[in-house]
Amino acid sequence: MRVSHNSLFKHLWIKIGEDDVSGFSAQLAYFFLLSLFPLLIFLVTLLPYLPLSREDLLGFVRDFAPGNTMALIERNISEIMNRNGRLLSFGVIATLWSASNGLNAIVKALNRAYDVEETRSYIAARAMAIFLTIAMMIVFIVALLLPVFGKEIGLFLFSELGLSHEFLAVWNTLRWGVSTLILFIVFTVLYWLAPAKKIKCVSAVPGAVFAVIGWILASSAFSYYVGHFGNFSSTYGSIGAIIVLMIWFYLSGFIIMVGGQINAYYSKRNEGC
């Protein structure tokens, strides 16, 4: 069945208002901020057990984080870790709780997009949110490990051919491809499992594609704006970096919500065929 893009845009315009997408995006921004530092603390405490450095971890975040927020993130991580190095258990609990709250907000928003009621019990819904949180943490660690191992393997193979310098130039491009693929997998699984409605995995692909492309473009554009035009420090003073971080999280949440609306639209169209 042929789908009119005009009808898709009209549907999104109406549903974004009806389903309070902006309100859910604000909720997600709040929960993203709450879970960011516990997640990074947890990952930093895992570094001694992984072939990774703190720079590898923060470098992954730096690829997407806008403006001067990395200075805020690095400073706070260093201060917290210097105060108490035994934060692994706290990091796990805090990350699971705060991130699962964010996923609960996503579940509610996706249920509203599909016009379905939550049929799962509170315990089942929370367990699913925690499971998705753990799965995303594992995917995030894999996303960190793949570039490290890929670079080492590539350097070994290409050095045998005397092409190590050429490989490094190519690898900087391929690294973005690996990150994009990881993001696509995360969004696909999220859109597939989160709604209280049985859908096929392939049905989650349109929204995941939109979310990946939209998030990368929005992050890059916002980062460029903050770096060249947005002087948040003069307006908000010392909390300017927090404001930038919250706006970035809000944009990220909005894009995730719209991706769910796109999947719901195509799902309803297919059911009506």
TrEMBL record:
The keyword NADP does not apply. It is a multi-pass membrane protein. Keywords: Cell membrane, Membrane, Transmembrane, Transmembrane helix. The chain crosses the membrane at residues 28-50, 87-107, 128-149, 169-193, 205-226, 238-259. GO terms for cellular component: plasma membrane. It is found in: Cell membrane. InterPro entries: Virul_fac_BrkB. Pfam families: Virul_fac_BrkB. This is Ribonuclease. It comes from Bacillus canaveralius.
